[in-house]
């Protein structure tokens, strides 16, 4: 995609149009202790409260009440976009690196499960996205006859919550079914703030440019899940999950674009003359109507029990989706807010029962981006990662008359590392004296990201 502004050719309000909605990767957080240990490959084997999210059929194997809390207690991210902004001024070209180092504590997921008759019911709140990216960079240069400054800031804050219920039951001793329904709420804020200045002491020319684009949106949607677990043999278990598209019910959007250009140039008599251009577009796009917000997802999984060791493998697929066409300000032009490519991901894990109370797990995963290409202010990054951790199950007796296993406390401690490579949009600013000033967003640069999560989960079975 190309976006270009020639501020002298169009000195009044000019709209660049909105970017497509940032297409998020799938593996943002792990929602249960099982998933954190084995990289999320649990659809065939999950038997804890995380089944509410990963495969509601797994609820059919739960016989006792559970309350679980899973959170990332520390998230460390390192993101760097080399040459994220390139400025070409009369005195030369400069390349500005945008980078960010983030230490954060995202919100936890909370789940409750209860057995009622032949059904197991569960409910919870899940945070599938908690993005808080702030990339910034700047550079100044000066000589005997000129001075230049350029800066860029890109902020993306996204939080997505799923609140819902699920149920699972046994069809037979070896077959279980489950269904879930979730309401989805997302709050997203996106800011691009670019500025540059140039002073030529020899000619007396001074140029200062600022471009700012802000968009805040809120979305409400709904999604459903259906799951199946089959114990094919005593050692082999199979799982299938179908996650419906998220159907957008409503969206509110508050956005604007701002351009400011200030110059001091000699007039015909050679005296300095100040010129200021500017423009504001208060609503660059209309709010989206009802439609598909996220695509259908299908997950196939297997688990094989070798005695003390269980190996797990999982394949997930989401097809291409192009939807939510919106009108742009000032004309018949439209754009799709959702434009995702088809994505297939793989997860693998192993769980070792070291003793009656200790389990050790590790795994690996891929997390490919559904972004077809990076839009202005977004990135298109594919991740590969590894996980590892331990889970302790401790029986507790509150009274002497209780059974030793009447109350169980589970604690999971795990770590996850992700390595990402992909592309980001490059901003190009060209100042050609008093002739023209252009901002373009049509080039891409290679990027490398790193992320490290420390996860802790706590649960009670009673």
Rough shape?
A: elongated
- Number of helices in the DSSP assignment: 2
Structural class: mainly beta
How would a crystallographer describe the biggest sheet? 19 strands, mixed
Q: Provide the low-confidence segments as ranges.
A: 1-20
Q: What is the mean pLDDT?
A: 82
The total count of strands amounts to 21
Please state the CA-atom Rg, rounded to the nearest Å: 27 Å
What is the terminal separation in angstroms? Answer: 56 Å
- Estimate nothing, just give the exact number of structural domains: 1
For the record, what CATH class applies? Mainly Beta
Percentage of residues assigned to helices: under 10%
Instruction: Kindly identify the CATH topology.
Output: Porin
| Strand residue percentage | over 45%
The CATH homologous superfamily is named: Outer membrane protein transport protein (OMPP1/FadL/TodX)
SSE succession? EHHEEEEEEEEEEEEEEEEEEEE
If classified by CATH, what would the architecture be? Beta Barrel
Oligomer: single chain
């Amino acid at each position: 995609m190309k976006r270009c502004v020639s501020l002298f050719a169009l000195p009044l309000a000019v709209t660049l149009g909105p970017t497509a909605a940032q297409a998020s990767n799938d593996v943002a957080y792990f929602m249960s202790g099982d998933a954190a240990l084995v990289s999320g490959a649990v659809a065939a084997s999950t038997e804890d409260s995380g089944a509410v999210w990963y495969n509601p059929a797994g609820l059919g194997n739960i016989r006792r009440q559970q309350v679980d809390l899973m959170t990332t207690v520390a998230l460390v991210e390192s993101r760097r976009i080399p040459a994220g902004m390139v400025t070409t001024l009369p005195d030369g070209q400069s390349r500005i690196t945008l980078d960010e180092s983030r230490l954060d504590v995202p919100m936890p997921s909370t789940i409750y499960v209860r057995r009622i008759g032949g059904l197991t019911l569960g409910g919870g709140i899940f945070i599938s996205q908690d993005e808080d990216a702030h990339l910034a960079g700047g550079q100044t240069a000066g000589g005997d006859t000129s001075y230049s400054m350029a800066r860029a800031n890109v902020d993306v804050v996204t939080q997505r919550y799923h609140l819902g219920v699920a149920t699972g039951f046994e069809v037979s001793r070896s077959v279980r079914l489950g269904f879930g329904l979730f309401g989805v709420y997302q709050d997203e804020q996106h800011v691009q703030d670019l500025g540059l200045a140039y002073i030529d002491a020899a000619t007396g020319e001074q140029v200062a440019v600022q471009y700012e684009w802000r968009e805040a949106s809120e979305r409400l949607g709904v999604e459903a899940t259906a799951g199946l677990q089959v114990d094919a043999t005593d050692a082999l278990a199979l799982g299938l999950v179908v996650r419906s598209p998220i159907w957008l019910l409503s969206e509110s959007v508050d956005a604007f674009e701002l351009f400011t250009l200030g110059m001091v140039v000699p007039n015909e008599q050679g005296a300095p003359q100040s010129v200021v251009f500017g423009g504001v577009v208060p609503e660059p796009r209309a709010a989206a109507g009802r439609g598909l917000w996220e695509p259908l997802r299908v997950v196939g999984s297997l688990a094989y029990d070798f005695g003390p060791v269980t190996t797990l493998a999982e394949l997930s697929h989401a097809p291409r989706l192009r939807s939510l066409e919106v009108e742009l300000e000032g004309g018949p032009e439209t754009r799709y807010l959702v434009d995702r490519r088809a994505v297939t991901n793989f997860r693998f894990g192993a769980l070792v029962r070291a003793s009656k109370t200790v389990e050790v797990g590790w795994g690996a995963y891929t997390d490919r981006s559904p972004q077809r290409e990076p839009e202005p202010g977004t990135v298109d990054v594919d991740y590969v990662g590894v996980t590892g951790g331990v889970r302790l199950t401790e029986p507790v007796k509150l009274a002497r008359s209780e059974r030793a296993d009447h109350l169980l406390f589970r604690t999971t401690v795990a770590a996850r590392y992700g390595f990402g490579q992909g592309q980001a949009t490059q901003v190009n600013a060209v100042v050609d004296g008093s002739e023209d000033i252009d901002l373009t967003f049509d080039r891409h640069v290679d990027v490398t990201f790193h992320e490290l999560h420390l996860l802790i989960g706590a649960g009670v079975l009673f």
